[in-house]
Design goal:
Strands 1, 2, 3, 4, 5 and 6 form a 6-stranded parallel sheet that branches. The protein has a 6-stranded antiparallel sheet with strand order 12-9-14-7-8-13, with helices on one face. The protein has a 5-stranded parallel sheet with strand order 17-16-15-18-19, sandwiched between helices. It folds into 5 domains: 15-60, no CATH class; 93-241, 3-Layer(aba) Sandwich (Rossmann fold), CATH 3.40.50.360; 273-315 and 420-441 and 455-474, Elongation Factor Tu (Ef-tu), domain 3, CATH 2.40.30.10; 320-409, Up-down Bundle (NADPH-cytochrome p450 Reductase, Chain A, domain 3), CATH 1.20.990.10; 489-632, Nucleotide-binding domain of ferredoxin-NADP reductase (FNR) module (Rossmann fold), CATH 3.40.50. The protein is an alpha/beta fold and 633 residues long. The protein starts with 14 loop residues before the first helix and ends with a strand. Strand 15 (489-492), helix 18 and strand 16 form a beta-alpha-beta unit. Bound molecules: flavin-adenine dinucleotide and flavin mononucleotide. Flavin-adenine dinucleotide is lined by residues 311, 358-359, 391, 421-424, 439-441, 443-444, 452, 454-457, 496, 499, 631, 633.
């Protein structure tokens, strides 16, 4: 009900009609009223005016209509066709972009420009800006969604993702849609988020305009094919519903996204900047099971390019032992020249800079086995064997297991393009100027098997002070300190998850934030793994940090993790949250983040006196408010 709408004044409408209007205006809701306004505008455009002065104005005159800029005619909400035209209104296409590292965002914006290029109303909405209930109004929807964490949706899409799985999700019989899923076949839950969204929409009664497409890391070609098909389908709908000249209706408060703005040049893995290594020091004690490094990098102007919460990508080279092992397994000459997809390098350069040698993906396994004429269908169907294989093997192991004759070209063709690795930035430009600090755990340093060494972390650990590396910035606008600096923040960052919070604390101190900062940290042992311990102690003294709760799992008989500390501090934590605090989590996606979520749920249930459903809804609201933020990997 709209309520409070009063029609008065000197209107050219008879009194009895005015009563009817008054009644409608009071009874109808906002959307119905907007639709009616469009409907009457259309009807008026087709009817001759008897009122002097209205002949040539916006409502009645063809001449005046011709003067309205195209954008203005397209923009108003719910512009219904004139009854005479009687064509069904052409719905606005919504493209929901649920992306974490920006791949999906770029695809969505390119598709938007193409759709607008055929004269169709369309908008791209970031999943984090999308009100889940708005889905009931959609008629045409494309969802471009990646998978992160351990088969999770990107953080910005959590609200929508969860909503679609609840009883509150509306039936969607009038919706036509398609999903483009982005993922990485080296993860066990390949394109899980896209698959789930696709299924949830179908379950709610929506009809697929196109089948879902699941893309691996080399997504460009497949994504373009999906986008071409997606464009063709909306073009067919447009041609059917809106013959040339027919008015177009929009369903969403009239606002459509302008065609994608000219892209601002930004650093990418393909176009990185050169940074100097200023420091690279071990920050764990002797006897630590895992090596962790504090790394500092800089170049002039770097401080203007990032904010705490962003990550830094480092262009790495594969470790020599991994390259040698591939060459040995294939008996190929490192100096052979290979041209592939327009690029020419020696085989050594392909293996060092361009191809993935340390992460195993299913398609690679399939193709290597096929090349060797081995049937691996049984292995492919065994999830636990596959998980073990991808966690413990590198490419050379697979090539050794399925020996075959290789040419340099066939090998380069079969290996996957290298995936960029990024590291949470552990500094604030407000404190360190043009430097970036990182906290890098060296994968594989706790094993003697050199071949299991993580490619990028070993590259980083071996970069010498004063040398140069190629870097790019990965923005993460979803993971920022609160704009309102009086808000309190709670940061949960065990292990390298601590990194962004070092940046947050620096930023809050440098900008004079008045809100309090509470940190939860965890590691194996206080004696070896308390990263940046001295800095936290000093920050506590300066009141730049107000509370630190630590959990060292192996310093006592029973294992204690951050989630236990969260529960122990539940009463106070709930009071902080109720008072408007932000809750941040960074670090391990597979075990830590779900365990912290479960602990938080328990805290809300117990200290908020709620049942499980209400506690879940409370956390969903916290997420929707942008106060429960995660950056997990
Ligand atoms: C947004 C984001 C922020 C990140 N921030 C940080 C950070 O601040 N500090 C940091 O150290 N890392 C961080 N990472 C992880 C980092 O990007 C790399 O994934 C990590 O360094 C491993 O890469 P690698 O090339 O050394 O190992 P890879 O060559 O990718 O892996 C080698 C082998 O080890 C396995 N493996 C990979 N990672 C792990 C692991 N953590 N534990 C056990 N086995 C593993 C792989 O499955 C593979 O078999 C972040 C990742 C993301 C997405
Ligand atoms: C930390 C992390 C976890 C990921 N987890 C998965 C996963 O579980 N399943 C999957 O298919 N892809 C996974 N991916 C791969 C991404 O979905 C893929 O890189 C995608 O192209 C990212 O798209 P975006 O930039 O739009 O977010 C993961 C990537 C990262 C960085």
């Amino acid at each position: 009900m709209s309520g409070g709408v009063v029609i008065q004044g000197n209107f050219p409408i008879p009194e009895e009609r005015r009563d009817q209007l008054q009644q409608l205006a009071t009874e109808l809701n906002r959307e119905q009223l907007m639709w009616l306004s469009g409907y009457f505008a259309g009807a008026a455009a087709a009817a001759p005016s008897s009122i002097p002065g209205f002949q040539n104005n916006l409502l009645g005159g063809a001449q005046a209509r011709a003067q309205i800029p195209a954008a203005a005619t397209a923009a108003p909400a719910f512009v219904a066709p004139a009854p005479a035209a009687a064509a069904a209104p052409l719905p606005t296409l919504t493209i929901i972009s649920a992306s974490h590292t920006g791949n999906g965002r770029k695809i969505s914006e390119k598709l938007l420009a193409a759709v607008q290029g055929i004269g169709m109303q369309a908008r791209v909405v970031k999943a984090g800006d999308y009100q889940p209930r708005e889905i009931a109004k959609e008629k045409l929807l494309y969802v471009v969604i990646s998978t992160h964490g351990d088969g999770d949706p990107p953080d910005e899409a959590r609200g929508l993702y969860e909503f679609l799985g609840t009883k509150r999700a509306p039936p969607l019989p009038d919706l036509q849609y398609s999903v483009l899923a982005l993922g990485d076949t080296s993860y066990p839950k390949f394109c899980e988020a896209g698959r789930v969204v696709d299924e949830r929409l179908a379950k709610l009664g929506a009809k697929r305009l196109l089948p879902r497409v699941d893309c691996d890391v080399d997504f460009e070609q497949l994504a373009q094919t999906w986008a071409d098909d997606a464009l063709a389908r909306v073009r067919e709908i447009k041609d059917k519903l809106a013959p040339v000249g027919a008015p177009i209706a929009t369903g969403f408060s009239g606002q459509t996204t302008a065609a994608a703005a000219a892209p601002v040049p930004e650093l990418t893995r393909a176009q990185p900047a050169t940074a100097e290594v200023l420091a690279n020091q071990r920050i764990v004690g002797r006897g630590a099971l895992r090596e962790v490094r504090h790394v500092e990098l800089a170049f002039p102007g770097l401080g203007n390019l990032y904010k705490p919460g962003d990550a830094l990508g480092i262009v790495h080279r594969n470790p020599e032992p991994a390259i040698d092992a591939v060459l040995k397994a294939t008996k190929l000459d490192a100096g052979a020249t290979v041209t592939h997809e327009g690029k020419t390098h020696t085989l050594l350069e392909w293996l060092r800079d361009e191809r993935e040698l340390t992460r195993i993906a299913r398609p690679l396994l399939v193709q290597v086995a096929k090349h060797a004429n081995v049937d691996i269908s049984e292995l492919l169907g065994n999830a636990s064997a596959m998980a073990k294989l991808t966690a413990t093997c590198q490419v050379s192991d697979i090539l050794g297991t399925y020996p075959a004759e290789w040419t340099p070209e066939a090998l380069v063709n079969v290996l996957r393009p290298v995936t960029g690795r990024v590291y949470s930035i552990a500094s604030s430009p407000a404190a360190v100027g043009d430097e970036v600090h990182l906290t890098v755990a060296v994968v594989g340093s706790d094993t003697d098997r050199k071949l299991l060494a993580g490619a990028a972390s070993h590259f980083v650990v071996n970069t010498a002070v004063d040398s140069n590396v190629q870097v790019w910035i990965e923005k993460n606008d979803r993971f920022r300190v609160p704009a309102d600096t009086s808000r309190d923040i709670i940061m949960v960052g065990p292990g390298t998850g601590i990194a962004p919070f070092r940046g947050f604390v620096q930023e809050r101190e440098a900008t004079g934030a008045t809100g309090k900062n509470w940190l939860f940290f965890g590691g194996r042992s206080l004696y070896t793994d308390f990263l940046y311990q001295l800095e936290w102690q000093q920050a506590l003294k300066r009141k730049a940090l107000h509370r630190v709760d630590v959990a060292f799992s192996r310093d006592q008989a029973e294992k204690i993790y951050v989630q236990h500390r969260i529960k122990q501090a539940g009463k106070e934590l709930f009071a902080w949250l109720s008072n408007g605090a932000y809750f941040y989590v960074c670090g391990d996606a597979s075990a830590m983040a779900p365990d912290v979520n479960a602990a938080l749920l328990d805290v809300v249930r117990e200290h908020g006196n709620m049942d499980a459903d209400d506690a879940q809804a409370w956390l969903a609201d916290l997420t929707a408010d942008g106060r429960y933020l995660r950056d997990v990997y």
